């Protein structure tokens, strides 16, 4: 699909669903206690709503960030593994490699 076609489809299909979701979040939020996890989740999404629906305004933006997460995974795993080289000298050798 072209970016324009994808944007049009997202606007026609996803945007109405997202609008109903936001209305429901705003309706339910006053009934929730301030600190429970559900209230925190609702506050989180409402505070970031513009970023959450941005993909509906541009067909070139992917609907998820799986590609980026896949690219960052080796860095995160490596960072965790590098803690166990046993010494500063071993860490320097690993960094060189």
Compressed to H and E, one letter per element, the order equals HHHHH
Low-pLDDT windows of residues: none
Helix content estimate: 55-70%
Q: How many domain units? A: 2
Task: Write down the Rg.
Answer: 21 Å
- C-alpha termini separation: 43 Å
Strand content: under 5%
Major β-sheet, in short? none
Mean pLDDT level: 89
SS class? mainly alpha
Got a strand count?
Answer: 0
Overall shape: flat
* Number of continuous helical runs: 5
Describe the protein in words.
The model has no long low-confidence stretch (mean pLDDT 89). The protein has 97 residues and is mainly α. The longest helix is centred in the first third of the chain and has 26 residues, at 3-28. The chain has five helices and no strands.
């Amino acid at each position: 699909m072209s970016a324009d076609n994808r944007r049009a489809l997202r606007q026609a299909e996803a945007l109405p669903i997202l609008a109903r979701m936001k209305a429901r979040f705003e309706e339910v939020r006053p009934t929730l206690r301030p600190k429970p996890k559900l209230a925190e989740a609702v506050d989180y999404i409402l505070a970031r709503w513009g970023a959450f629906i941005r993909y509906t305004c541009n067909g070139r933006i992917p609907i998820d960030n799986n590609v980026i997460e896949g690219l960052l995974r080796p860095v995160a795993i490596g960072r965790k593994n590098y803690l166990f080289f046993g010494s500063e000298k071993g860490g320097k050798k690993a960094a060189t490699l």
